[in-house]
Amino acid sequence: MGATLMSDRLGDWVQAAPLLAAGYHLDVLAAVAARREQETVYPAEERVFYALERTPFAAVQVIIVGQDPYHGAGQADGLAFSVPEGVAAPPSLRNIFREVARDVYAGAPPSFSTDLTHWADKGVLLLNTILTVAMGKPGSHRGLGWEALTDDILMALHEQREGLVFMLWGAHAQARRALMDGQRHLILEAPHPSPLAAHRGFFGCGHFSRANAYLRAHGKRAICW
């Protein structure tokens, strides 16, 4: 994908995030392209920056920080925790839906789509800190440069926006806490929604209703989860 086309697809993120403005992402994509010649990589090339393409910088209200994409065939769609419609919800996503149901819908929610594009379109940035992964090898693209880029994106949101909600689930996401100021934004932390950790405090965290209360208090529209 050409640099000009990539910049067009990323829209206002290119002006907001210094590393995107400098073209750093093109270097990372080149490293990923070399990996694609040797291994199956998820998500597909055109979906790598889908989180940024779907939720413009100026539209972000809530940020949910993930780790890296799902590493199974047909799962990763470019949004953290999301899978395409018709694909079985992975355990972490099922647990997210369980908490939304308890927290927002008194345990009786409408049917949820596993494709979280509908959240992205409402201003929820679903951002993994590592944007690609090799099939069957979680964490395999750590160190390719994604972490610096996504930290830069988080810093741009922190410094240039006011009254955002950051949801940090698990130690990997919470390592980004040092980038953020709780005076300017609402920082919500909980264990990861994976089956190994969800019962240690993710269930019952109330992040979704707390986010909406904060947004309303700051004159913003609540998210329809």
Brief description of this entry?
Helix content is 37%, strand content 11%. The protein has 225 residues and is α/β, with parallel strands linked by helices. Helix 9 links the parallel strand 5 and strand 6 (186-190).
Structure explained in plain terms:
The chain is an alpha/beta fold. The protein has one domain: Uracil-DNA Glycosylase, subunit E, CATH 3.40.470. Helices cover 37% and strands 11% of the residues. It has helices at 3-10, 13-16, 18-21, 24-36, 50-54, 91-104, 117-120, 146-160, 170-174, 207-217; strands at 41-42, 62-66, 124-128, 133-134, 165-169, 186-190. A four-stranded parallel β-sheet has the order 3-2-5-6. Strands 1-4 form a two-stranded antiparallel ribbon. It is globular, with a radius of gyration of 17 Å. 40% of the residues are buried. The model has no long low-confidence stretch (mean pLDDT 96).
From the structure above, extract its key features.
about 220 residues; alpha/beta; Uracil-DNA Glycosylase, subunit E
